[in-house]
Amino acid sequence: MAKPVEIRSKDHFDTVLRESRVVVAYFYSNGSIESKNIAPYYDELSKLISKPKATLVKINTEAQRPLAAEFAVTTPPTFILFRDGAIADKVKGANPHGLLSLIEKLSKDVESGGEGSIRAGSGGLAWRGADLPRGYTDISDVVDVRGLELLNADTDFSVRTLFSKSKPSALDKSPSTSDEKDWVESDTDEQLLLFVPFNSATKLHTLQLTSLPPMDNNDEDDDEETPMRPKTIKLFTNRPHNLGFDEADDINPTQTIEIGEADWNSNGTANLPLRFVRFQNISSLVIFVVDGDGDSDKVRLDRVRLIGESGEKREMGKLEKIGDEPGE
């Protein structure tokens, strides 16, 4: 059985994520006793799971600092399970029981041919913050996470977390003791520009945004630092790369959406219907957060979900019906 692959660079890891649908990454440190203690358990995992169904890798956090920073690994050892290039699960510390749980999840995915909870639209366990429109599915798995780009984001956050299949930590009832952040915030002002490339042509029906800023802050002096929810967003389709902020201000968007307070549900998710006839053959999407719903200098996003159709054709009659929807 092959040993885990030692990652040599960020490009090397991106290649592994691109070529393997399921990847387990072991982030370790040579100076960590816990890393040395847990290493034999990881070697046992490599004997249970075979390539090409899954790839196991090792990443030295000291030699590969950019990767450790990208995936917010601050306390090796840390194990991360990737599905389709996105983080699906994470275990921190020398925790054999947690690693065993990760092995069981991975084994189930492998046994099901890499499906199961990997594809959000296939009835798996992926978290969603709002119900699906009738007749449509979550197609967020079409996102090419390796091509994601987020402008004006705080460097403490990773853009890939926006498409994580897991439930946002802010919705957990028990307070988290981890300093790990599974959301993104803007940096110098409240604007964000998110470029989302797709693996295949897509029909988008609805955009779901989840934003869970802290709501119990009563200190007026901290108002500028407390992040807001997005208020105005502009969407641009079929762009070969991300826009600049000046360009996004000057050109006409495919659609502009104003999000009101009543649009956010109890999960902090806004279900935003799109003008479906304008989103019929989409290879990429740019989401421009123009402003937030308050006076802060920051906005926050926890999750992004894409709802629609991928790789399927609708009957002509239904297409005509959609085209006749009010407001089109």
Give a brief description.
19% of the residues lie in helices and 28% in strands. It is an alpha+beta fold and 328 residues long.
CATH class of the largest domain: Mainly Beta
Q: What is the molecular shape?
A: globular
Q: Using only CA atoms, what is the Rg?
A: 20 Å
Number of helices: 6
Mind telling me which CATH architecture of the largest domain this is?
Sandwich
Helix content: 10-25%
Oligomer: single chain
The count of domains is 2
Helix/strand order:
EHEHEHEEHEEEEEHEEEEEH
Instruction: Name the poorly predicted regions.
Output: 113-125, 312-328
| Largest β-sheet summary | 8 strands, antiparallel
Please report the distance between the alpha carbons of the first and last residues.
Answer: 58 Å
Beta percentage is: 25-35%
Round the mean pLDDT to the nearest integer and report it: 81
Structural class: alpha+beta
Characterise this structure.
The chain is an alpha+beta fold. It folds into 2 domains: 5-118, 3-Layer(aba) Sandwich (Glutaredoxin), CATH 3.40.30; 120-323, Jelly Rolls, CATH 2.60.120. It contains 6 helices and 15 strands. The strands form 3 sheets. Strands 6, 7, 9, 10, 11, 12, 13 and 15 form an 8-stranded antiparallel sheet that branches. It is globular, with a radius of gyration of 20 Å. It starts with a strand and ends in a 5-residue tail after the last helix.
